[in-house]
Design brief:
alpha+beta, Heat Shock Protein 90
Length: 339
């Protein structure tokens, strides 16, 4: 089976038809956020360097991204400058000083996972492509979204990295589904080693979040799962589906990410999880990664609905996974504004 034969009916059958939310307020990722004091001095310096490099790239791109030639010139200048090398170096070393010698650095490891992953993983690959092939001008709009999103993810992770912009991120401002569609409907998404086509299927047309800070919390889940799906997709395609739950009067949105995997990867996962693939969200399982990304996603989803128990959230279908032959479909939910 391939992702191309996975039907909308298959996708919409995943998960429950209704989900209770016990959270009286909107979740903005506060349980997955620290201040700079959580990092060793060396890592604080690396954080500032990486953030400043991205910000210096983003500010002119924000004005130029509608004009193709100016946009390309700015990117070419950046990828061949010392700023690009400094950004890559800072990201590659980020977290080492803080976690060195610690018996249980899991909190920082989770943050470093999103600071070095998130939208930056795809951005790094895209910038390397542009550096190697400067005449390749496709995917420029993707770069703009990736730079913008990762700056917000970094502020979401570290509250005092940029206090002025963090305060602006926290302001109430409705974010509808079109803000997701504009970036995930672009031709391709870059995985770790190769681009994949995103098969976007949207069955919801309303508001998702009420602040940039909440939206970047949702982005931290999506980029984690999309990065992982792109990494293992064997047919060059990843499905991203959105649907309201319940379908008549939605109170939440179900996000489904699905990709075909190799027979070897399928065998490893079946050996590890048997007929309960949703257990991968418990964390600790990896085939070359960090083993924390799926658990970060699960915890974000549970907190958004006001649940404190991982086991309850998994058993109730707030997040989960299902095999369709060799296609792994993972899902999670997010409560919509007003619910």
């Amino acid at each position: 089976m391939s992702t191309h034969r996975l039907t909308d009916e298959d996708i919409l059958s995943l998960g429950p038809s209704w989900l209770e939310s016990r959270n009286p307020s909107r979740y903005q990722g506060q349980q997955e956020r620290v201040t700079l004091e959580a990092f060793a001095p060396e890592d604080r310096n690396l954080l500032h360097r990486a953030y400043q490099s991205l910000l210096e790239l983003y500010l002119p791109l924000r004005s130029a991204h509608v004009e193709r030639r100016a946009f390309r010139d700015l990117l070419e200048d950046f990828v061949h400058s010392e700023r690009h090398g400094d950004l890559a170096l800072a990201m590659s070393h980020l977290g080492h000083a803080t976690t060195a010698g610690k018996a249980d650095p899991i909190e920082v490891q989770r943050l470093v996972h999103d600071l070095r992953g998130g939208a930056y993983q795809a951005l790094s690959f895209r910038l390397q492509l542009l550096e190697a092939a400067p005449d390749r001008i496709d995917g420029l709009q993707t770069v703009y979204f990736l730079v913008r999103d990762h700056l917000k993810i970094m502020r979401n992770c570290v509250a005092d990295l940029d206090p002025e912009r963090f305060a602006a991120d926290a302001l109430t401002k409705d974010h509808d589904v079109n803000l997701l569609l504009e970036k995930w409907s672009l031709p391709e998404f870059n995985g770790v080693a190769r681009p994949v086509q995103v098969d976007l299927r949207c069955h919801y047309g309303g508001t998702l979040c009420e602040s940039c800070l909440e939206f970047s919390s949702l982005d931290r889940i999506l980029y984690n799962l999309m990065n992982n799906a792109a990494r293992f997709a064997t047919d060059g395609s990843v499905i991203l589906s959105l649907a309201g739950v319940p379908s008549s009067e939605p109170e939440a949105v179900r996000f489904v990410i699905a990709n075909a995997v190799s027979p070897q990867h399928h065998a490893v996962m079946v050996e590890q999880f048997g007929d309960s693939p949703g257990e991968l969200f418990r964390g600790g399982f990896t085939t070359g990664g960090h083993g924390v990304g799926a658990r970060i996603c699960a915890d974000f989803c549970a907190h958004a609905f006001g649940l404190s128990s991982f086991d309850e959230a998994l058993a109730s279908g707030y997040f989960g996974a299902h095999w369709f032959d060799d296609v792994l479909a993972t899902w999670f939910h997010w409560p919509i504004v007003g619910h």
